[in-house]
């Protein structure tokens, strides 16, 4: 069967399930070149592996293509009642970067820094308060604002998240009368977040995802259970949430060893 025809059916089904256009673009970027090389499906595991590894790509891009091709091939194999060719394809190994997030002192500095600009304040405090993605932030409509509930639509489809009443009131105060709360693009969000993270002296990458990491770590430290954190953040599984949990637990252990009243005595012994 024509790979292009299968792919169009795959994307149509994804759109029906609520997949965002940004994620559709990601699938197109990963899979369209593959379809050009292999216009007929099924494709052997050897050919798929050759496509991924013979290109002069970084390991990050190979992993990206592998992940998206895997979803397509799994679906296509089910439709054609055939074995999934991706099962025997070597998965690229990618070194995970450490998760960076804001500590309480940095959050305090950030809160003070954004207080002079209500729109910037609304953007950053909403990201911190809810843990939503940039695309989800930009999907917020005036009609979807409540005192403690926020409806968003993004990578994982539509969902409802909790929001602090004070942040909800802030959004209502800066929003236009109809349409979306934030009439900006994602590049503007990146510039705003990068500016304030630089202003407070935050080291490392300065994208808005830092606020998502910060929400997860502090929510887990403050007692929110892992399932609730996973649902709030729109994770499809708790695998990603477990990474936050391990980091939160590691930080708690290190803090205890540093500040325990017995730490000095035990070190001497």
Low-confidence stretches: none
Number of domains: 2
Name the helicity range. 55-70%
- Shape designation: globular
The strands making up the biggest β-sheet line up spatially as: 1-2
Gyration radius from CA atoms, angstroms: 22 Å
Quantity of strands, as a count = 2
Please identify the top-level CATH class of the largest domain: Mainly Alpha
Question: Strand share of the residues?
Answer: under 5%
CATH superfamily of the largest domain: Intergrase catalytic core
State the separation between the terminal residues, measured CA to CA.
72 Å
Question: How many distinct helices?
Answer: 13
Q: What name is given to the CATH topology of the largest domain?
A: hpI Integrase, Chain A
Biggest sheet overview: 2 strands, antiparallel
CATH architecture name of the largest domain: Orthogonal Bundle
Integer average pLDDT: 87
The secondary-structure element order is: HHHHHHHEEHHHHHH
């Amino acid at each position: 069967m024509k790979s292009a025809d299968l792919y169009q059916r795959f994307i149509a089904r994804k759109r029906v399930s609520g997949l965002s256009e940004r994620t559709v673009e990601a699938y197109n970027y990963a899979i369209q070149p593959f379809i050009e090389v292999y216009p007929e499906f099924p494709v052997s595991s050897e050919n798929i592996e050759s496509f991924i590894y013979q290109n002069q790509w970084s390991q990050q891009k190979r992993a990206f293509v592998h992940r998206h091709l895997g979803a397509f091939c799994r679906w296509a194999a089910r439709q054609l009642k055939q074995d999934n060719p991706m099962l025997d394809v070597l998965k690229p190994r990618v070194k995970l970067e450490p998760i960076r997030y804001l500590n309480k002192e940095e959050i305090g500095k950030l809160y003070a820094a954004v207080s002079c600009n209500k729109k910037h304040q609304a953007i950053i405090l909403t990201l911190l308060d809810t843990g939503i993605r940039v695309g989800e932030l930009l999907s917020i409509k005036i009609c979807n604002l409540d005192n403690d509930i926020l409806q968003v639509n993004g990578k994982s489809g539509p969902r409802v998240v909790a929001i602090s009443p004070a942040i909800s009131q802030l959004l209502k105060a800066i929003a236009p009368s109809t349409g979306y709360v934030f009439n900006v693009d994602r590049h503007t969000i990146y510039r705003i977040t990068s500016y304030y993270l630089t202003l407070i002296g935050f080291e490392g990458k300065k994208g808005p995802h830092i606020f998502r990491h910060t929400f997860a770590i502090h929510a887990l430290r403050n007692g929110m259970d892992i399932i609730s954190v996973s649902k709030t953040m729109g994770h499809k599984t708790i695998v990603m949430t477990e990474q936050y949990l391990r980091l939160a637990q590691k930080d708690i252990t290190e803090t205890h060893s540093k500040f325990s009243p017995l730490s000095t005595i035990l070190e001497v012994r």
